[in-house]
Specification:
The complex is a heterodimer.
Chain A (H helix, E strand, L loop, with lengths): L1 H6 L13 H28 L3 H32 L8 H22 L4 H32 L14 H42 L1
Helix pairs in contact in A: 2-3, 2-5, 2-6, 3-4, 3-5, 3-6, 4-5
Chain B lengths: L2 H19 L3 H18 L5 H23 L1 H6 L1 H7 L4 H31 L4 H26 L4 H25 L3 H27 L2
Helix pairs in contact in B: 1-6, 2-3, 2-6, 3-6, 3-7, 3-8, 6-7, 6-9, 7-8, 7-9, 8-9
The chains are: A mainly alpha, B mainly alpha.
Chain lengths: 206, 211
């Protein structure tokens, strides 16, 4: 991932600051994928009623929030580098991630305020499903809000047509971010399963 | 009983309870009008455009007040378990609660909008339509969230945290319909929000209250 970051050709008008693109966008896409994965596991839980899906869904959202925070940080740095402000309300992606970050922060509060058990699993699952519905709705809302919050010209993103080398670097970074997410997810899941097992054994002994 | 009959009976129970106890609606009215008075002093100079935006903040928080109280009676009396055991579709509980909350909210907004008209000037037809559409969306999603929060510790604190990110699109649609020249898009967006979250809450409520 770092290789792709250093090796990619510089953008014509943005210069070195453009390199954060290779970190920001893959991390953002990975965060979406993790939220989607969490919702998929939540749906499976409601469908089948099998307990393990709860932990899988929770872990996916957990890692997703970490990636979401990383997106906010890198996005903020990018905004600083290219527009001179740490926060730019006209950056749709960034605003959307702020809303999602608030939403999924509430997920943890909800989880920790409920007693463990099947009821908590189901409530968390419904909330996680609400998240994937909220993504497109909020995206639309952020776009619509620009009309009255930001009457000026809208800053357009870099041209989506990337030249070959840049595209390769981007794909490598995306794969890197996805691999990192998968590793973290499996690691966390193993840890949480171990925790749960330990608790069961302790209860059996005590 | 039929599904509609169940919903009507449950909603009637909530409305009767409020009619006899008068616990929630008067407090909401005073809160909404008080909020508008506070906004008058929070805005420097004559800014009726900004006041229109703040009206939506008042609506959002008034709805939050209603939702915090939505399951209060059930929780205090341990009624939720009894409702779940009742031989009716559980989504009927959600629908009845949403209908009752919408009724409260509309009643409060009659007073709040009159106060707004008095303090800041009138609103267009589009704004009133947006308020009606927003009520449906806020209550549809809000009752589901309230049912989630009611079983938790610190539930009064939890609901606002859950509610604000979900309610944000409603605020965008409402403010857009109130201040822009082209309200149709925003009204359409509000209607879309209502439909999406009504379906989600209708399908998801069963899993939230099952014990």
């Amino acid at each position: 991932m770092a290789l792709g970051l250093l090796w990619a050709p510089e953008d014509a008008d943005q210069g070195p600051s453009q390199r954060i693109f290779y970190l920001h966008v893959p991390v953002a896409l990975t965060a979406y994928a993790l939220f989607g994965w969490g919702a998929w596991k939540a749906l499976r839980l409601l469908w089948t009623g099998r307990e393990p899906y709860d932990l899988e869904s929770y872990t996916a959202v957990h890692v997703g929030v970490i990636f979401g925070l990383l997106t906010l940080v890198t996005g903020s740095i990018w905004a600083r580098a290219s527009w001179g402000t740490w926060w730019e309300w006209s950056d749709r992606q960034l605003v959307l991630f702020l809303i999602l970050f608030l939403f999924y922060s509430a997920y943890f509060m909800l989880r920790y305020s409920l007693d463990p058990g099947p009821a908590r699993a189901r409530i968390s699952a419904v909330y996680a499903l609400m998240g994937v519905v909220l993504v497109p709705v909020s995206f639309l809302a952020v776009r619509l809000a620009e009309n009255f919050v930001h009457p000026g010209p809208i800053v357009t993103r870099t041209d989506p047509q990337l030249p070959g080398e840049m595209l390769l670097a981007f794909v490598v970074c995306l794969a890197g971010a996805a691999a990192l997410a998968a590793t973290l997810y499996l690691n966390e899941l193993a840890g949480k399963r171990l925790d749960a097992r330990l608790r069961e054994l302790r209860e059996a002994l005590g | 009983m039929s599904y509609v009959g169940d919903v009507a009976a449950l909603a009637r129970k909530d409305l009767l309870l409020e009619l006899r106890g008068r616990e929630t609606v008067p407090a909401m009215v005073v809160f909404a009008v008080g909020a508008l008075v506070v906004f008058r002093f929070a805005l420097p100079g004559e800014q009726s455009e900004a006041a229109k935006g703040l009206l939506w903040v008042a609506i959002l928080f008034t709805a939050l007040l209603a939702l915090t109280r939505a399951f209060a009676a059930e929780r205090d009396q341990g009624l939720l378990d009894a409702l779940v055991l009742a031989p009716c579709d559980r989504s009927a509980i959600w629908l009845a609660k949403a209908v009752a909350t919408i009724a409260f909210l509309v009643l409060v907004e009659v007073f709040a909008l009159a106060a707004f008209w008095l303090f800041f000037g009138g609103l267009g037809v589009a704004a009133l339509a947006a308020v009606a559409l927003a009520d449906v969306g806020l209550c549809a999603a809000g009752v589901l969230l309230a049912a989630m929060a009611v079983g938790g510790r610190a539930r009064e604190l939890l609901l606002p945290v859950l509610f604000l990110p979900v309610a944000l699109p409603v605020l965008v649609g409402g403010v857009g319909a109130t201040v822009t020249d082209d309200p149709a898009r925003y009204l359409g967006f509000l209607a879309l929000y209502d439909a999406v979250f009504a379906i989600l809450a209708w399908a998801g409520f069963e899993y939230v209250v099952t014990e």
